[in-house]
């Protein structure tokens, strides 16, 4: 399951319709920052501005998170302080201060980075303040979040708007118990939840969350948590509805990613069809994946035709989820293994990776829990009868295929090692022969001594 544009709209109220957040990135933003923000950039070839200097220019230099303060309270207090400072300005000075506030909110919250400085790549879009509200900042937030999450298991930091992921998890995975309702019926949903404070260590909390995610039954997942929402009181939802339930390219300047909504068709009330991932090849290539400061002037306005067409609607001709689960078991059934902390993890395995698999019984138990909970809903999954024979056969087929692949890989490694040993043996034999030949050759000094002795004997 992944966050979608509908989640962004309902949780944050940010627009997902309108103009794509894209344009040109520059090698240096020094002139633009000085002209539009009235601030100095210490490094000529940089897109970063100091956060403390931005806050000081707005009169909110001391605005920091207070103990127990949520993101919504912090933003409300920051906005109130900034409004008080902006009320004292007029004309061009007021526009300059407004741009400072917008770049602080966009560059630090909506499109936040891991470091303390604020990124100014969106500053060109703030030059005309009358058009700022026409951009799809919500879609840019989702693209930036997808890009910052990454796929490496060594990633320890995440950039982006964290409250979106938190509230999204509260709505779709309520059994985790990480959120507490504080204002029933409040909109946007960001104001409806409060984070459940936990006094245990961070390592312990992460371990518990991992264990809960690995064992949560599918019947406990809320695929369509917004069916009872009153959309009449949320005009921003109706405005963004044409972009819901579609595979569409999301834009955030240098970040251009595809929202694969068809992978979570169940969030649309559809049955999940068999997933066949396409190749990574595409008809166009972008200059790079992410922006790292010093870059050439680059125009990122690509695939805007897809955004203007609102992508492609997600449809499913599947009449049940049975084929999807059978294919999933055949592909990944034997690739359940114990990850860090002795927790059970289910992942796809790349050809080069070598991960130990747990016994088939554990693999079948986990798959049975997912399968049965999908069919019976939020009732007691442990009272479900055994797996259908055809599903067990699919699991065994996946296990046999995985075992055969591992055996072939081990055999290839043995043959490669055998060839290396044969080559080393041949090289050793050659060296021994050369050394023996050298030992049979007389030294030059000995030859000279023998010659002298022969001459002396003759005389």
TrEMBL record:
<feature type="coiled-coil region">
    <location>
        <begin position="397"/>
        <end position="434"/>
    </location>
</feature>
<protein>
    <recommendedName>
        <fullName>Aminotransferase-like plant mobile domain-containing protein</fullName>
    </recommendedName>
</protein>
<dbReference type="GO" id="GO:0010073">
    <property type="term" value="P:meristem maintenance"/>
</dbReference>
<feature type="domain" description="Aminotransferase-like plant mobile">
    <location>
        <begin position="3"/>
        <end position="317"/>
    </location>
</feature>
<dbReference type="InterPro" id="IPR019557">
    <property type="entry name" value="AminoTfrase-like_pln_mobile"/>
</dbReference>
<keyword id="KW-0175">Coiled coil</keyword>
<dbReference type="InterPro" id="IPR044824">
    <property type="entry name" value="MAIN-like"/>
</dbReference>
<dbReference type="Pfam" id="PF10536">
    <property type="entry name" value="PMD"/>
</dbReference>
């Amino acid at each position: 399951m992944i966050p979608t544009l509908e989640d962004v709209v309902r949780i944050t109220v940010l627009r997902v319709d309108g103009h794509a957040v894209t344009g040109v990135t520059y090698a240096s933003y020094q002139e633009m920052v000085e002209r539009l923000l009235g601030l100095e950039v210490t490094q000529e070839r940089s897109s970063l501005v100091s956060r403390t200097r931005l806050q000081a220019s707005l009169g909110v230099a001391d605005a920091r998170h207070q103990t127990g303060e949520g993101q919504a309270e912090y933003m409300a207090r920051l906005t109130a302080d900034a409004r008080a400072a902006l009320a004292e300005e007029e004309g061009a000075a007021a526009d300059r201060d407004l741009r400072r506030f917008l770049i602080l909110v966009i560059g630090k919250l909506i499109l936040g980075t891991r470091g303390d400085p604020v990124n100014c790549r969106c500053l060109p879009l703030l030059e005309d303040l009358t058009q700022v509200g026409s951009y799809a900042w919500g879609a840019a937030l989702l693209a930036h979040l997808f890009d910052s999450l990454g796929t490496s298991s060594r990633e320890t930091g995440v950039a982006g708007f964290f409250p979106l992921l938190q509230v999204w998890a509260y709505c779709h995975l309520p059994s985790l118990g990480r959120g507490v309702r504080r204002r029933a019926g409040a909109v946007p949903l960001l104001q409806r939840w409060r984070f459940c404070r936990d006094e245990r260590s961070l390592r312990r909390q992460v371990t518990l969350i991992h264990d809960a995610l690995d064992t949560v039954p599918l019947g406990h997942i809320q695929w369509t948590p917004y069916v009872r929402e009153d959309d009449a009181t949320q005009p921003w939802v109706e405005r963004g509805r044409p972009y819901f339930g579609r595979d569409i390219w999301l834009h955030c300047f240098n970040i251009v990613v595809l929202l694969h909504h068809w992978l979570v068709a169940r969030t649309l009330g559809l049955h999940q069809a068999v997933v066949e991932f396409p190749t990574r090849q595409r008809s166009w290539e972008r200059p790079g994946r992410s922006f790292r400061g010093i870059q050439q002037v680059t125009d990122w306005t690509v695939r805007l035709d897809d955004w203007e067409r609102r992508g492609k609607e997600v449809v499913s001709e599947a009449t049940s989820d049975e084929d999807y689960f059978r294919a999933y078991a055949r592909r990944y059934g034997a690739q359940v293994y114990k990850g860090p902390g002795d927790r059970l993890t289910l992942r796809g395995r790349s050809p080069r990776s070598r991960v130990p698999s747990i016994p088939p019984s554990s693999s079948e138990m986990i798959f049975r829990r997912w399968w049965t909970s999908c069919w019976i809903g939020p009732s007691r999954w442990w009272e479900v009868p055994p797996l259908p024979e055809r599903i067990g056969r699919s699991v065994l087929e996946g296990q046999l295929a995985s075992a055969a692949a591992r055996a072939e890989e081990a055999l290839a490694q043995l043959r490669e090692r055998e060839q290396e040993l044969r080559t080393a043996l041949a090289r050793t034999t050659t060296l021994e022969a050369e050394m023996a030949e050298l030992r049979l050759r007389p030294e030059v000094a000995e030859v000279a001594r023998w010659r002298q002795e022969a001459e002396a004997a003759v005389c």
